[in-house]
Amino acid sequence: MPSVEAGATGPLTALSPIGLQFAQKAFIVSGGRLLLVRKSASDPFHPGRWEVPGGRLEVDADLDLDDHIRREVWEEVGLKVDPGPPFHLWQWFMPDRGPAGGQIRVIAAARRCRPVTLDATLENQDASDHLDGCAWVPLDEAAGYDLIPSLRPVMRAFLNRAG
């Protein structure tokens, strides 16, 4: 491969820009049941599929990682949780809807969280969450739900640890 002078365009500069974001997902268990949320028909990426509560870090607003996961769970399902340590890391890519276009690489951590409250509600969610349902699902049935694809290996890891 020919060398490239400093500051000159090289083979990688022709690629679309890739942004980086961090997300956390909460695996909330109570009484042998896991809380799942369903994406609405308006979700641009995974309409009708199931996942666990969570979302991307707000760099200017979240004080620390525990604050971040507490905020996400509160906004999506109205629960207060006690965050546990991460048990799985993974990534996914999504289109960047900003003016630059390109892609966003999302690095995510899954955390088992203990619920402090149990009455889940979707009333706090932001419209961009695109959720239309939530359910406390028996652990032995959780893998049978139509999960978003990137969450499937994480669910297997969670269930292997839970069982």
Features:
163 residues; alpha+beta; Nucleoside Triphosphate Pyrophosphohydrolase; seven-stranded mixed beta sheet; 3 helices; NUDIX_hydrolase_dom; NUDIX_hydrolase-like_dom_sf; hydrolase
What is the typical, i.e. mean, pLDDT? 91
- How many helical elements? 3
Q: Tell me the Rg in angstroms.
A: 18 Å
Distance between the termini: 51 Å
Report the sheet with the most strands, covering strand number, pairing sense and barrel closure.
Answer: 7 strands, mixed
Number of strands: 7
Sum this structure up briefly.
With 163 residues, the chain is α+β, with helices and mostly antiparallel strands. Helix content is 17%, strand content 37%.
How do the strands and helices of this protein lay out in sequence?
Blueprint: E1 18-30, E2 33-39, E3 50-51, E4 54-56, H1 65-77, E5 81-95, E6 103-115, E7 131-138, H2 139-142, H3 152-162
Describe this structure in words.
InterPro entries: NUDIX_hydrolase-like_dom_sf (IPR015797), NUDIX_hydrolase_dom (IPR000086). The chain is 17% helix and 37% strand. By secondary structure, the protein is an alpha+beta fold. The chain has one domain: Nucleoside Triphosphate Pyrophosphohydrolase (Alpha-Beta Complex).
